[in-house]
Design a protein that fits this description.
The protein has 132 residues and is α+β, with helices and mostly antiparallel strands. The protein folds into 2 domains: 64 residues, 2,3-Dihydroxybiphenyl 1,2-Dioxygenase, domain 1; 51 residues, 2,3-Dihydroxybiphenyl 1,2-Dioxygenase, domain 1 (Roll). The chain is built from 2 helices and 8 strands; from the N terminus they run E-H-E-E-E-E-H-E-E-E. The chain has an 8-stranded mixed β-sheet with strand order 2-3-4-1-5-8-7-6, covered by helices on one side. A hairpin with a 4-residue loop joins strand 2 and strand 3. The two termini are 17 Å apart.
Length: 132
């Protein structure tokens, strides 16, 4: 995600689908909705960045439930952009939610953490990298 495509605070800036067989599922979305897949080397296997036909902006990712995604729940996870991840995670628990796992790096784009709201729905909070 480039700086010009930095998501607005409170918006869904990304989504990932985590499944056992990302290869088959990326083909499903290619054939059903017309997304193209670009492989992303995960050190021994590939996850996929999915882009809508005619667009240069990816729609999301299709990921294997292994490696850094081993503890991710199966299904779609949306990444909601927050200003301060640490402060938001404090609010998650104060408001009856759960922090699921550790804060993780999203490379040079920022960092994120998976959460569960009081109803049991899972999403992730994402903080964009700060400019130095």
């Amino acid at each position: 995600m480039s700086e010009s495509h930095k998501p607005a605070l409170g918006s869904v800036g990304w989504m990932d689908l985590t499944v056992k067989d990302a290869v088959a599922v990326k083909d499903f979305y290619r054939d059903v909705v017309g997304w193209t897949a670009t492989g992303l080397d995960m050190g021994g296997y590939e996850d996929f960045i999915m882009t809508p036909a005619g667009s240069e902006t990816p729609a999301g990712g299709v990921c294997h439930a292994r490696g850094s995604n081993e503890d991710m729940p199966s299904g779609w996870v949306v990444y909601i952009t927050v200003e301060n991840l640490d402060r938001s995670l404090e609010r998650v628990t104060a408001m009856g939610g759960k922090v699921r796992g550790k804060v993780r790096s999203a490379g040079g784009m920022g960092r994120f953490c998976v959460i569960e709201d009081p109803a049991g729905a899972v999403s992730a909070l994402f903080e964009s990298a700060k400019k130095e």
